[in-house]
Amino acid sequence: MNLEVLEDAKQLGVAAARLGAEAIRKAIAENGQANIIVATGASQFETLSALIAEPDIDWSCVTGFHLDEYLGLDDQHPASFCRYLRERFVELVPLKQFHYVDGSSSDPQQVCRELGQLIQKYPIAVAFVGIGENGHLAFNDPPADFDTNEPYLVVELDEACRQQQAGEGWFATIDDVPTQAISMSCRQILKTKTIICSVPDQRKAEAVRRSLEGPITPDVPASILQTHEGTTLFVDKAAASLLTSSTLSD
Question: What is the spatial distance between Cα 112 and Cα 182, in angstroms, rounded to a whole number?
């Protein structure tokens, strides 16, 4: 895993988008298409904004996959990740196709099966992801399942994750935050050639430290990114504030 420390969230987003765009262009040049995974949340604001502004990407050759979604929210809810992606990304670039996670389905296991069968047909060039305050990767909260090969899972959201969602203002109170979600699995994320991990903000500093400097453990789900040579972790100075000098100098 590579580390890039930027001055602030805006610079982080530009740098992350630039590397992601390079990987998308390369995939299109080599394969005639690029398949990508797109995350949501506050950590992705600047990255997605910069990505859609990147020049010379033939978006008509790009197919997107949705990383995760709450169960029980329709796609008009203010906290819906489907709505977030539609408004902040999908409607702003002329993609070939985008595959959403339907969190409002009455049969979430069927959603997982169908998306799982689909994504296995598409080699993924780039995944845009983040790290949660509890160290989660996608909605794989600790202790995450590092063993399953299922591409999508129905997962339980822990209190720290749900508190983060309320704290960021997506929900009025923690009681309003769903307790379950559909998430791409850790092993499916690791199948991606290039992983762009954007993590701004002081409140993520401890999770960044544990993900980068601690052991690889399901108790810190994002620590599994240490095993992926094609991952670059983009952090601002606030998120990097607890890293040791040896890590920062590598």
Answer: 7
